[in-house]
Amino acid sequence: MSVKLKNKMDEAWDYIWAGLFNPQTRLFYDYRTSLHPETQFAHLPTPEEIALQFPNPAGWGTGMEDSMLNAGSVMEILCLRKELESYPEALSLASQVLGGILSCAYGHGVDGFLVRSLCPDDGQSCYFNSSRDQFTLAVYGVWRFLNTFPEAPEKLRADAKRLLVDIARYCERVIDPDHDDLLRLDGKPALVSTMVNVAPHERLRLPMFYAAAWAATDDPHWFDLYRQYARSGIVDTLAIDRSRRWWDWELPQLQLSLARLREIEPEAVLKKQYADAMLITADLASRELRDRQARAAGYLGNWDVPNLDWRQMPMTTRPETLTPSSRSMLFGGYPYLMPQFPEAFHTPYSLLRGVGNLAYAALMCPEFKPVPDLLTGFLQTAIKPNYSQHHSDGAINILHGYWTGLKRGFF
Fold first, then answer.
1. Upper half-sphere CA count for residue 120 (Cβ side, 13 Å)
2. Where are the alpha helices (DSSP H) in 16-174?
3. Separation of alpha carbons 411 and 406, rounded Å
4. Res. 312 pLDDT band, cuts 50 70 90
5. 330, β-bridge pairs
């Protein structure tokens, strides 16, 4: 299994750089619709479509939805590869990934606002509605870059530090007791971007952003802002509902935030609380991981079916954009129409994403001790695709889980 797994993970690594990465924008896109390099991104929205914020201001479903999530995960993989095997290309590739994140923060005139992705046609067109998830993975990735690559050119390190500070400044400017979301790029209220009045598993996102700025600069202003939210945030996090079911993006992002805060927190009591919350999160993630692995084991379809062009899909509206009278579905002046992926693509994609995300959420906790069948289930899912023929960014999540497990010595 170990040789086959390594070969499969090498195949997945080659695929994400050849099939999902665009060297002009330095971003990883969500899926490809063709095996041919010249047409694999033909489905991505045009500048004209993006100018109209069509089909929705978040770019959901278009292939331009999750470039910041992907960037954070790929950055983590590169950091782990450098730490575990002195990967000679790590710095060069990490610099490319950082460049893509920087472009998403500075290419639109609102410093520190992270858009989800950029249009390859012009390298600058972008959708307005980001999310706390996109911010979380990007901040985590930049923070990891600074910690892992002290040998990076000083200009690049300065740019990374500036970005963490600008994100913190942006958050400080737009989030206050009377307003608690990140807004859209056009300054209007956003969906999925609330930062303060949030569920317990989301309470540590904002303090993590401020802590990253403090770690980059030693500026006590950012430490004070971090601590302002951290103490109540960790109390709420420790009271997390352990009976509910979890989407496969919720627990990983909580775990990433906890890991970084645990790393930099100087107070023993607070550090211990972060460690306790990490173990709770790992236990919950392992439960969900079993569920996704069981589904993956029972899936008998093709793991490598291409997605359709989103323009050819049926679309539905996000229910929260409907007015109480249901006479309008505009939110902030735009419709939020959601392309509905065909099941032949969506099912294996969501299984890969879920198994990868939940695996790293569990395995990155140092105190979590997985039972053997949990690891075996991950490996059995990870080797199912033919990555040379694959089309989704679920491969990135699988690689994130794999390299996190390697760091713990499991694979």
1. 20
2. 47-51, 67-85, 90-106, 132-148, 154-174
3. 5
4. very high
5. 335
Report residue 255 as tokens.
């775990």
Bridge partners (DSSP) of residue 159 are: none
Q: Which contiguous run of DSSP H or E holds residue 335?
A: strand 334-335
How far apart are the C-alpha atoms of 255 and 285, rounded to whole Å?
10
The length of the chain is 411
Q: What is the pLDDT of residues 8-54, one digit of tens each?
A: 999 999 999 999 999 999 999 999 999 999 999 999 999 999 999 99
Residue 2 has pLDDT above 90, yes or no: no
What is the CB neighbour count within 10 angstroms for residue 244? 10
Helix, strand, or coil (residue 122): coil
For residue 89 the two structure tokens come to 């290309």
CB 336 within 8 A of CB 259: no
286-291 CB contacts, 8 Å cutoff, 24+ apart: 286/358, 286/362, 286/368, 286/370, 286/374, 288/245, 288/246, 288/248, 288/251, 288/354, 288/358, 289/354, 289/355, 289/358, 289/359, 289/362, 289/374, 289/377, 289/378, 290/374, 290/377
First to last CA, the chain: 9
Nearest to 296 by CA among 370, 397, 383: 383
DSSP label of 110: S
Contact between residue 159 and residue 91 where contact means Cβ atoms under 8 Å apart: no
Judge whether 101 and 141 are in contact, CB under 8 Å. yes
Q: Which residues lie across from 27 on neighbouring strands?
A: 22
Long-range contacts of 365-374 (CB under 8 A, 24+ apart): 365/255, 365/278, 365/279, 365/281, 365/282, 366/278, 366/408, 367/275, 367/278, 367/279, 367/282, 368/278, 368/279, 368/282, 368/283, 368/286, 370/286, 370/410, 374/286, 374/289, 374/290, 374/293
Q: Are 258 and 278 contacting, i.e. CB atoms less than 8 angstroms apart?
A: yes
* HSE toward the beta carbon, residue 342, CA cutoff 13 A: 15
Q: What is the pLDDT of residues 322-376, one digit of tens each?
A: 999 989 999 999 999 999 999 999 999 999 999 999 999 999 999 999 999 999 9
